[in-house]
Amino acid sequence: MKKITQVKKSIREEVRGKVMKERILAAAESLAKDLEDDIADEVGNLTGKLTTDFMDDGSEIESELTGYAFDQIHDALLGEVKRQLK
Question: What's this model's pTM, rounded to 2 decimal places?
């Protein structure tokens, strides 16, 4: 039976190998895409739930404020997701 250190070395080498790196990259890209979509959906929902009234009948100011609110919520939500993943 192989020593545990030899098996660990083999695992490290395989994980760092080209085939496994490609598999990991593909999985990470899929997860990131799904997460981006989920975050965008949640930010949209949260933006719609703001109690601050910044509606001005479709003016340029309303568009700017909606974008600002979206960015603020996106940054806060992404920051919290990162903290939860640690």
Answer: 0.66
